[in-house]
């Protein structure tokens, strides 16, 4: 293909979803030789900022990593076309602060107020770390790898949390932050496959679990009154809990709809009556909690490996095996797809 002349100009329209950086959406002419830096200069000039802000640019949902000229040639576009360019503030990658050492794969991490970190590992253990990377506590009890963890409550002296495992159970734990004591409050049984995900309801009185057995189960966080179990002290050999002393809990509701494993579940923070799930059947499903009804289903062509709900935007983000993060609007039909060329592996978790 013949190389485009560097002095050629092309018509572009800039758009953004970041309102504080919005500029006119009128069509303007820009040199076809521009790259990200040159386009950032134009946006900063239109905004009138004294201190320049770097931006990233997307065309057809793909980050621009070449000149406009190269993009147009690779996409077989005409210079007579009007090019719509979306821009977002460019952010630096996060800087590592500390390292949390484990003995096997780490499957789940939950933070609390940027001071405590709850982790689940394939070595069957749950751990609590502080921001210095110090392991404050290690919890033994599950008989298979941990797949998901979730805080219930945290105070200055005690914490309670949930852990889900491939041993088909969920455990609720209570631990002291001032000594070595901890106990299993109860063990949830009802799934017939690996428990892949747990999500705490905004009220903190209920939670949901998603499993390899195609089901979603609903539970309360209430501690059974008849459960009597002494606090066990952690020895140097990590004493195991006596399962015979652990109160077994059963679900209060079951939700069926997925065909195949359910990989992830998340509650709607804004509407406490809604819940979302993602599964290997290529679907994101929306549920009414009270009636346990799947009243809306959004489909794609890849297995859904993880989902997360955004309280601010009201959107659902899902990770997949095709290196794509999809954004779903539960209030509308279809899907808004976001591509990133930086993602070259499976997306198994999003927050």
From TrEMBL:
Major subcellular site: nucleus
WD repeat segments: 139-174, 188-219, 255-297, 297-329
Cellular localisation: Nucleus, Nucleolus
Cross-referenced InterPro entries: NLE, WD40/YVTN_repeat-like_dom_sf, WD40_PAC1, WD40_repeat_CS, WD40_repeat_dom_sf, WD40_rpt
SMART domains per the UniProt record, alphabetical: WD40
Keywords associated with the record: Nucleus, Repeat, WD repeat
PANTHER family: RIBOSOME BIOGENESIS PROTEIN WDR12 (PTHR19855:SF11), WD40 REPEAT PROTEIN 12, 37 (PTHR19855)
Protein name: NLE domain-containing protein
The species this protein was found in: Diversispora epigaea
Lineage of producing organism: Eukaryota, Fungi, Fungi incertae sedis, Mucoromycota, Glomeromycotina
């Amino acid at each position: 293909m013949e190389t485009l002349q560097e002095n050629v100009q092309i018509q572009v329209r800039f758009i953004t979803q970041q309102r504080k950086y919005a500029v006119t959406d009128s069509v303007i002419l820009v040199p076809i030789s521009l790259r990200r830096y040159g386009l950032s200069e134009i946006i900063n000039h239109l905004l009138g900022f004294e201190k320049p802000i770097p931006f990233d640019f997307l065309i057809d949902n793909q980050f621009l990593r070449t000149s406009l000229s190269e993009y147009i040639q690779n996409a077989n576009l005409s210079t007579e076309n009007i090019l719509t360019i979306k821009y977002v503030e460019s952010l630096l990658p996060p800087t590592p602060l500390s390292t949390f050492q484990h003995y096997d794969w780490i499957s789940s991490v939950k933070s609390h107020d940027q001071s405590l970190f709850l982790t689940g590992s394939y070595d069957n253990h749950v751990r609590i770390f502080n921001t210095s990377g110090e392991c404050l506590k290690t919890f033994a009890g599950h008989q298979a790898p941990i797949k998901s963890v979730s805080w219930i409550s945290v105070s200055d002296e005690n914490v309670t949390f949930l852990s889900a495992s491939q041993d088909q159970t969920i455990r609720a734990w209570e631990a002291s932050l001032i000594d070595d004591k901890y106990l299993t409050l109860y063990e949830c049984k009802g799934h017939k496959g690996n428990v892949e995900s747990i999500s705490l309801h905004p009220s903190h009185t209920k939670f949901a679990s998603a499993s390899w057995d195609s089901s979603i189960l609903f539970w309360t966080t209430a501690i059974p009154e008849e459960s009597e179990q002494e606090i066990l002290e952690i020895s140097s050999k990590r004493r195991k809990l006596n399962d015979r002393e652990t109160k077994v809990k059963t679900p209060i509701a079951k939700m069926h709809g997925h065909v195949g494993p359910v990989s992830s579940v998340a509650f709607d923070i804004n509407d406490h009556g809604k819940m979302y799930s993602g599964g290997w059947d290529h679907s994101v499903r929306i549920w009414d909690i009270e009636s346990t009804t799947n009243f809306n289903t959004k489909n794609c062509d890849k297995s859904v490996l993880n989902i997360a709900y955004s309280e601010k935007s009201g959107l659902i983000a899902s990770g997949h095996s095709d290196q794509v993060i999809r954004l779903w609007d539960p209030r509308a039909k279809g899907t808004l797809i976001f591509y990133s060329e930086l993602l070259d592996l499976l997306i198994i978790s999003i927050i």
